[in-house]
Amino acid sequence: MKNVLRHYRWRICALLFVAINYLDRQVLGILKPELAARFHWTETDYGYVVTVFAFCYALGMVFAGKFADRFGVKMGYSVCVLVWSLACCGHAFIRNMLGFGVMRAFLGLAEAGSFPCAVKVVSEWFPRSEQSLAVGIITSGTSIGAVLAPVLVPWLAVSFGWQSAFLLTGIPGFIWFAFWYVMYYAPQKHPRVTPQELHVIRQDKETVQEKDDGQTVGWFSLFKHRATWSIVVGKGMTDPIWWFLLFWLPSYFNSRFNLDLQHLQIPTYPIICSGDIRSVIPIFSDHPFQ
Known about the structure:
Structural class: mainly alpha
Radius of gyration: 20 Å
Shape: globular
Largest sheet: none
């Protein structure tokens, strides 16, 4: 058979897109009114649970890159997905505030490794001319979960009980792990990557390696670059709003307008879908990793 370019790297990109849907982190926010009534949570109690997740997610980001470098993205990403899938399913068996806090902590720590691993995969599998598009695609996956959750989670909770919403959004992670473990190898070791595609992937890697003197980059040296400040300012301005909408919007609609689980979709969709705009910004950047 003739050896032709197969574009296998875009299958890897599709796997990353599916992994970064974050559907599992949306379940608690949507079910918050029901869980608060069932377990007698106050707004402060729920705030503590949300804070634990956010703190552990931020803490995990500090170590996620080192973790991916140490164990490689195949093993590193596998561990992250397995841990956060177990944590998501674990919510179904919890009956107290401490237990939910522990599950959210593990969920935050594990999900923190998703983007560092995904970006490392993109840098290994794509030439620089395609990295912006690849990052834009996988980043847009974060909004897919937010869009699906208002439909899927209430239906699961009403039809099969609130526990099913956690279980059936956590189980797909194990299925993804199976595909990832079978399909992913480094490009130069992958049996499905043709020499032509490998040439495309590596066409500018030599130039990048020539510029790399092998020195370790210090934390504080990063603040000398404008790209670092662009990320800090951009995330600082958008993330608090986005996370507030994800975790508190269903509760607001319930308390202010008395909307139950079956009537959250219509008012939630326009607000959540507007967040998709921020997901496509990397597509318009020519050099996302500079």
